[in-house]
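Assess this:
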Amino acid sequence: MSKILGKLINNYYKGKKTLVRHTAKPSWHNLRSVVPISRNFGSERGTPVGRYYIEKYLSKNREVIRGDVLEVADSEYTKKFGTDITSYDVLHYDNNNRKATIIGDLTDKLTLPKEKYDCFICTQTFNHIYHFREAIKGSFYVLKEGGVLLATVGGLIQISRYDMDRWGDYWRFTTLSLSKLFSEVFGEKNVVVDAYGNVLSCIAILEGMASEELAMEELDYKDDDYQLIISITAKKTKA
């Protein structure tokens, strides 16, 4: 009887030690603050973590950035990653943007050129459009047959105050929601959705740390439960 009681007591304390070990308090260091290190996505510290993932995605798909290309806000990525560019346009909602060659609204086809582009680069835009379903249709509308949309959106990221104060910051997405939304317009077989990020990179962007402050293996580690940036590659076909 005493041996059995001894085993029970030992097992109890072993379990208690395990419990303590698993619930040990984290070391917060200088992160225990209710204000972030930076409110500008870390841009004043280096390359924002989100931009690191966006450029990684576009670099991987540079072979489709060719021919007639449309990009939102400016032509930076067209010039950086494009090959065999025939022409390019810059689409923007605000006519105060001097880089814009087309002042248009993705939710209003009457303001958009029809079936003109081989590639449409649309980064970090759908988060800021209230009627995003119509914007997806607008993206389909501007592409030629065989044209490709290269889009990114924010998942686990903070509010963009710049956009919020101008045209709005409305939505956050997941790979599942985007796969369904874009498949409704482009067709399921023509849509590929992927995610970038992990718990550390999500903490980094929320704090406003730059990508240079993380190791490459930390940035490139992928955890589908922490979707920081989500990419959508969608091809326009007849069907």
Observations:
- The mean pLDDT is 91.
